[in-house]
Write the structure tokens for this entry.
Amino acid sequence: MMEEDVILSHGHRESGVPPGLLRRWVAAAAGVLMACVVISGFATAADPPIEGPEFRLPNIWQGDLDGMAQRRLIRVLTVFSKTNYFLDGAQQRGATYELVEAFDDFINRTMKASRTQPIRVVIVPVSRDQLLPALAAGRGDIAAANLTVSSDRQATVSFSDPLIEQVNEVIVTGPLSPAITGIEDLAGMTIHVRRSSSYWQSLETLNTTFAARGLAPITLSPADEALEDEDILEMVSAGILPLAVVDDHLARFWAGILKGLVIHEDVTVHRGGAIAWAVRKDAPELLAAVNHFIPKAKYGSEFGNTLARRYFRDNKWVRNPTASADFQRFRAAAALFQRYAADYDFDWLMIAAQAYQESGLDQSARSRVGAIGVMQLEPATAADPNIGIRDISDLDDNIHAGTKYLRFLVQQHFNDPAINSLNRTLFALAAYNAGPSRIDQVRRQAASMGLDPNRWFGNVELAAAHAIGRETVVYVSNIAKYYYAYRLALEELEQKKAAQSQSDQE
């Protein structure tokens, strides 16, 4: 059977990231989970093995806002950093994340999208060097990652109005750095910088000036594209690298976190820059919509200033990354998600995403209808002979019961060879929320409407929106978004961890 479309594709086949599972769990450092073990599931002897759902990067699609509205999907490319986009346990956070969430609300209101069939604005984490090529190629629709507007970049993409203006690229030194008193002191030095960054272009321009003045050129050493500015600054702070080039607003924040950093405000390689979002050149309607959104979100607006305070002044996740309640709940539950997902043949990140949607991973949660715990299961359902777990007040038994019930739903209601493994899971999630009889009925209704009764997104979900309403559609969609973000996030963070390890060894 052909592999199913990506969960968030709305009926368009996707391709990109090859299947494969991360193999180890590494403790969170500086506000993000750096890697995870994804334990392969196994079936019992009585049950045939069922593939776990897999995700792929969005396929190549190019078009403007009207096509995105029709697809009900806008893909936002970004990168991981400890200020703009990171994971706090199972919760996505960061200035860029909150901007994208606000844009999601804005675009759905502006486009008057149906509450039962909203336009999905999905974050796709990539490495820095993939951002603009992936955008131009149609693997994303917006790039949002503290991007400086430059002439080189404007040749391939269009930039929005600025989110931040008057940004200077400054030199930052550490405790073991040579003395820097002026720009000429950089002559003959080696600076480690990402080739894809605006800093690289600025230093090349500076080298042209040095050549005209008879000064030795700066040697540009390409830094790994998985490393963010804060990673390079950590190496400067530790004495591994002599200096760094960084946007001044980032330099000021990290100088208050990392020991020994000195910002040379008067030694700049570029002045008066602008930070903006980027879109493809074939998307003027999307660009206009983004520009309509920018005044409400830019630095200086009420919302923009709130984000600046939250992530660039009072960032509690950087200062104490393991202290948050979200992180503590996720750490307490992660091993249980892995264990029971393996027992019942699910990807544990899917179970974690469902639990986050159900309760925010809060075992003390109680619903008005009597559902309890992380998995929000009713005690009577858990005690049913098919599940056989009588007390779900304990976190372990709660996650066990919820995962076992999800597998029961797959096996009893959606174990049809015509339904592929991904859609079996999606139907089971919908049934977990609305009840299996309702979903069986909605699948029949979808067939009568000329839709595919064996596919959730773009098909049965439309019948569910009509027959059930918004709740179940949004429930499945949210779980898909969380899972999609977790999978891509952990793969990207594993690459970053490998890059940091390699840099430490050099």
Q: What stands out?
A: The chain has a mean pLDDT of 84. Residues 470-505 form the longest helix (36 residues).
